[in-house]
Amino acid sequence: MFYRIYKLTMMQLGEKLDLGKLRDKKGLIKTIAQKVMGLILLSMVIFVLLFVIKHMLFIKIDKSFFILVLMLLQLMSLISASSGLTHSMYLARDNQLLFSYPVKANEIFMSKIAVFLTYELLRNITYLFPFLLAFGLNASGGVGIGYYFLIIPIVVLLSLIPVLIGVLLSIPITFIGRWLKERPLIAGIIVTLILLGVFLSIVEIVSMLPDKISFIGMYGKIYTAMVAFINGVSAYGLYLINIANIMLSINFLVNLAIIIVLIGVLISLAYYVSRPIYFKMAINSYEFSNKRKYKMSKLTLNKPFLSFVSKEFKLLRRSSGSFISSLITLLTLPIVLYVLNNMIGRFNIQETGESIKLAANVFLGLIVLLSANSGSATAFSKEADRAYLLKVAPISIKKQAMAKIIFNLILSVLVLILTCVVIAYTTNISGINMFFMFMLFLIVNVGHILWSLEIDFMDPQFKEHESNEDSKENKNIAKSVGIGIVIALLTAIASLMLLRGTFTSGWITLIILATLFLSVRIYLFMNKLQVYFKRIEF
Q1: How many CA atoms lie within 13 A of 392 on its CB side?
Q2: How far is 374 from 370, CA to CA, in rounded Å?
Q3: What is the average per-residue pLDDT within 383-403?
Q4: CA distances, 419 to each of 183, 422, 425, 444, 493 (Å)
Q5: Under DSSP, is residue 298 helix (H, G, I), strand (E, B) or coil?
Q6: From the DSSP assignment, how many helices (H) and strands (E) are in the chain?
Q7: d(Cα 391, Cα 306) in Å, to the nearest integer?
Q8: How far apart are CA 167 and CA 284, in angstroms?
Q9: What is the pLDDT, as a whole number, of residue 295?
């Protein structure tokens, strides 16, 4: 049994990690040296950061601070483990292969946990280990020598606990995700309501700030509030309080016993709750096991272009993950710009500061807006094994391409309008500036959408989407986001330079440049589509 679990684990790790380097002694030594240097450098950076917090901001690097940082890191690990295990255990493409092997479902289940625990351990060694080391060197009052010997065991424990919790949470997440996948409209409404609640909470917090902010004059109050926040939040650290007590040698044996019991309970729950239903849930996660019933409807005929638009909306319903991801990204745009402008508006700024403020709006706004175009960077790839139908469809490839981006365009325009309304009514940015900013965002966004779509048809990743239309492994997504960041940075720099003089002439020049960019992208897109699409092999 354990031998089979080991083999399954190593086989899955071999697909994700380059284990061949372990056989090459020189390559292994080089890799280890690079990792160690990286850990040392990161530890030094964190040490300096904690030193500044301690000696310049006068905040104690004590047990409460330690617990607060661990809470943040564990929350990130828990989110990562829950979402990652949901995909790895129930939605991964390798399940079809693993279940065909002469092994038990329980062994596959345990190998999946072992694989993810390995990833989590490697991640925590990279980030958690440097923090623990830097904290020990900076701790107010110092730490005992035993603290440093406990770092590695504690890293292992803090990797194991979120993974075990994630195993349990992956069950309801899978059920809820499967239900929402078939109901993207409901999922979109839920996401919108959550973001609305976040926005209203931020508005309430920002409204409590004074009209004029001076950090030097207000630091006494700020310091008191930060200390109260650290102490208040750390009091709810749960098992992390016990971890801190273990590291700082406070009631060592009692706290160690509590952590061991906690891990034992989590292992028991994972084994006796998650394990028995793992196989059934994993099997029912595939399209061929779908039990959904469809109602008969009257056949209707549409024009070819409208038919393809309808098809894209149907595909969007099936791949609700990408829709929700884009919606979340876009709806954060008004929140980000609202917070930025309200915070900047509470400082005394001169005319030069106004151009910097507008340039900052352009940069952050485009970063968020263009990041939501990852859907266009996978538009052709999502066709997967249906891609050959694109060449035999009774409609030109140009119209098919337009059908693929029409939803992205509509959604981004609606969010841009919402953003402009929110910013216009909540900040002192003039209406004419908001109009020019809206036009700039719209033109640049259309150009980036076309560029993202061009990236995808130039190098479609059909295999990545054969069993999962929401695959995040498509390398074209990273290309699209990277280009979007560069565009946002260049546009912000141009804004800063052109808006120093007369705003109106500066905005007009920016819009002319953006229009030239869009014209170039349209020309390249149309020409490359005609030439390279014929060469695509499926």
Answers
A1: 4
A2: 8
A3: 63
A4: 26, 5, 10, 16, 22
A5: coil
A6: 20, 0
A7: 18
A8: 18
A9: 55
